[in-house]
Amino acid sequence: MKAVNEVSLSIDQGEIVSLIGPNGAGKTTVMNLISGYYPTDTGRMTFDGLNITGLKPHKVCRMGISRTFQIPRPFPDLTALSNVGVGVLCGKHRPHMSFGDGLLDASHYLEFVGLFGKRNTLAHDLTLYELRVLELARALATTPKLIMIDEVMAGLNPGEARRAIKLVNRIVEEYKVTIFWIEHVMQVIMEATERVVVLHYGEVIATGPPKEVVQDPKIIEAYLGEAIA
């Protein structure tokens, strides 16, 4: 079975779009393909009118696309500040910046996400919430036009989840970025996203406003099973 099969979708500038579907639907695979982490077999991807099909992840990043990972992937033996500094240096507008200047910029992003006090803490000593926030800071530090967020709420307690939602909203408001968001928490989807794309067995089966999509019998069946639907 193909992980992703003839998926066709578009995201307009300034949108907050969620990608939902049951476990194993291919959601993270879609992000891996867009970011260049996985190579595509067929098809074409464009961003800002330019063909990005087949580009390596660092080139996709410098085109203006950044991402977070479902399982945080920091450089564990670097400090929080250095982790975000790497994001700065990989960004679209800063390929020739010195690492020292990159760390100055990184301080701003750490302060924005509330981690400045942990700037000298090694990544492997951070809590799960702090690691997820670090992922957002590093993604934002690349000066993206599009941020792809892969389940930022996973493993967080309700209080931490609310803080993470507020942070994503602040990122959108202050940096005017477009968001493509994988999420399983339906309350987040209903409140924070403008449009939903539903993936099932690697194929798009629905797209539209959250309140309409979640009432679709096909979507209920995909999540809960035919008998319950």
Task: Identify the notable features of this structure and list them briefly.
single chain, 229 residues, Rossmann fold, alpha/beta, 8 strands, 15% strand
Count of domain modules: 1
CATH architecture: 3-Layer(aba) Sandwich
Number of strands: 8
Query: What is the percent of helical residues?
Result: 25-40%
Number of helices: 9
Q: Which homologous superfamily in CATH is the superfamily?
A: P-loop containing nucleotide triphosphate hydrolases
> In this structure, how is the largest beta sheet organized?
6 strands, mixed
The CATH C-level name is Alpha Beta
Provide the gyration radius in Å.
18 Å
Series of secondary-structure elements, N-terminal to C-terminal: EHEEHEHHHEHEHEEHH
- Structure class: alpha/beta
In what order do the strands lie side by side in the largest sheet? 4-5-6-1-7-8
CATH topology: Rossmann fold
Ranges where pLDDT stays below 50 over 5 or more residues in a row are: none
> Roughly how many Å apart are the termini?
25 Å
How big a fraction of the residues is strand? 5-15%
Residue-averaged pLDDT: 89
Shape: globular
Could you characterize what this model shows?
By secondary structure, this protein is an alpha/beta fold. It has one domain: Rossmann fold (3-Layer(aba) Sandwich). The protein is 40% helix and 15% strand. The strands form 2 sheets. It has a 6-stranded mixed sheet with strand order 4-5-6-1-7-8, sandwiched between helices. Helix 3 crosses helix 4 and helix 4 crosses helix 5. It is globular. The protein starts with 15 loop residues before the first strand and ends in a 5-residue tail after the last helix. The mean pLDDT is 89.
